């Protein structure tokens, strides 16, 4: 293990040992703020509402690139116990998603990596793992308008050091089916909401995965019933069923079109559909010259982003964004979440090579 890899792994471990479940990011902000405040050549432009943003003094005609990373993690769940480092592998909640990426960002900031062919800024933000309505990132653009000047944002979500562009949109909906309660010995006096819900939700179960080509990349559109609840007792015909539905849609579809598609899929007259959240997709920005330079700097594989990530929020703020980070995405949110020291060093090297490239 190289010295750089060892340092990155140790910092990832330290960050992973700071609890930062969504909406409870204060402790990790307090740990990162003093490091970012003294990073050479940077000035804090936003320090509010679980966001820390730092920018360099701008040089004329030099593009601004932002490194972005979310501070929060999903709940601990089955990933019990403190984070650990064993044989070059850092294990524990948040190591892959995405405290390994945060460690790389901090290492670059503390090394003064804001020169070269681009001006490099940093945005750390909370509340990414919750519905977009609670976003901490988007309001930061209002408080710090200079962030809008960025020509590209690189979000260090785990991609196994591939370049992932775009991202699927994410609709969360609640489907309610109402009936009429009755004694289960005389069900004809009632209207069984569970039986009706099975009919209403059947088109979702029958829906096939839809492959959508966007600029040569194949995004997979899927829809799933993710929770369902109904009934009060074994001898009562139920009068209400509630089911949560999740739909992921490709970047060539707008949020309103996606909602219409979901409503068309669940057209049963007894079904009520409430859209709880609709996070738009991220643009496939392969036409951005800086993306081409980043791809060349690391000789990177290019893939579509199947899940939703903050690249969409950067896009909503008018900034093209891509995902590139350490860690295999399959470990994100898993009980065996992990990232390797070698992957951390690889991300650091790719970004460093990108900075060193001539425009």
Structure report:
The longest helix is centred in the N-terminal third of the chain and has 16 residues, at 95-110. With 359 residues, the chain is an alpha+beta fold. It has helices at 3-16, 26-37, 95-110, 137-143, 193-206, 255-265, 289-298, 311-316, 341-356, and strands at 42-48, 51-56, 64-70, 84-86, 89-91, 119-125, 150-155, 163-165, 169-178, 182-183, 210-214, 217-230, 236-237, 240-249, 271-279, 302-304, 321-323, 338-340. The protein has 2 domains: 3-167 and 282-356, Aminopeptidase, CATH 3.40.630.10; 169-279, Alpha-Beta Plaits (2-Layer Sandwich), CATH 3.30.70.
Low-confidence stretches: none
CATH architecture designation of the largest domain: 3-Layer(aba) Sandwich
- Calculate Rg over CA atoms: 23 Å
Q: Number of helix segments?
A: 9
CATH topology of the largest domain: Aminopeptidase
SS content category = alpha+beta
**Secondary structure: helix percent:** 25-40%
* Residue fraction in strands: 25-35%
How many domains? The number is 2
The tally of beta strands, per DSSP, is 18
């Amino acid at each position: 293990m190289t010295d750089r890899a060892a340092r990155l792994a140790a910092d990832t471990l330290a960050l992973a040992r700071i609890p930062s479940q969504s909406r409870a990011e204060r402790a990790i902000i307090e740990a990162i703020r003093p490091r970012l405040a003294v990073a050479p050549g940077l000035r804090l432009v936003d320090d509010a509402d679980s966001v820390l943003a730092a920018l360099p003094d701008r040089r004329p005609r030099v593009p601004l690139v932002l490194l972005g990373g979310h501070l929060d993690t999903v709940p601990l769940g089955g990933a019990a116990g403190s984070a650990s480092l064993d044989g070059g592998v850092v294990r524990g909640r948040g190591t892959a998603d995405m405290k390994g990426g945060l460690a790389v960002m901090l290492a670059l900031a503390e090394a003064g990596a804001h020169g070269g062919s681009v001006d490099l800024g940093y945005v750390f933000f909370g509340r990414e793992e919750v519905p977009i309505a609670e976003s901490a990132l988007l309001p930061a653009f209002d408080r710090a308008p200079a962030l809008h000047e960025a020509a590209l944002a690189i979000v260090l979500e785990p991609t196994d050091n591939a370049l992932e562009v775009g991202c699927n949109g994410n609709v969360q909906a609640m489907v309610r089916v109402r009936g009429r309660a009755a004694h289960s010995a005389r069900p004809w006096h009632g209207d069984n909401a569970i039986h009706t819900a099975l009919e209403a939700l059947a088109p979702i179960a029958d829906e096939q995965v839809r492959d959508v080509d966007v600029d040569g990349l194949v995004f997979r559109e899927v829809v799933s019933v993710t929770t369902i609840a109904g009934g009060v007792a074994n001898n009562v015909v139920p009068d209400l069923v509630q089911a949560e539905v999740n739909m992921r849609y490709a970047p060539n579809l707008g949020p309103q079109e996606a909602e219409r598609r979901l409503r068309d899929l669940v057209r049963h007259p007894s079904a009520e559909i409430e859209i709880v959240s609709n996070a738009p997709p991220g643009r496939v920005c392969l036409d951005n010259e800086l993306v081409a330079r980043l791809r060349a700097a690391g000789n990177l594989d290019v893939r579509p982003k199947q899940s939703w990530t903050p690249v969409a929020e950067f896009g909503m703020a008018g900034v093209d964004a891509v995902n590139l980070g350490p860690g295999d995405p399959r470990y994100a949110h898993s009980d065996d979440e992990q990232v390797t020291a070698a992957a951390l060093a690889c991300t650091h090297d790719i970004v460093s090579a990108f900075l060193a490239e001539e425009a």
